[in-house]
Amino acid sequence: MKNWIVYLVRCTDGTLCCGVTNDLSKRIKAHNSGKGAVYTRGRFPVHLEAKSRTMTRSEALRLEILKWITKEKLL
């Protein structure tokens, strides 16, 4: 089922965090309440910078991994 998206949020310290979800508003609320990813805890509130089109879960996870690989190469 194509209801997954890859999203990019900017944390208060200016860093970016990439994630995958099937409910973006719920996920952003979790990040902003300190219950999201470990990386965003203590760096909230976060602000949505970008999101992908809807896709299958496996497509979304593949895209998220590609984003992390690209980030590592830039370092």
From TrEMBL:
This is UPF0213 protein DVU_3309. It comes from uncultured Desulfobacterium sp. Gene3D superfamilies: GIY-YIG endonuclease. Belongs to the UPF0213 family. Residues 2-75 form the GIY-YIG domain. PROSITE patterns: GIY_YIG (PS50164). Pfam families: GIY-YIG. Coiled coil: none annotated.
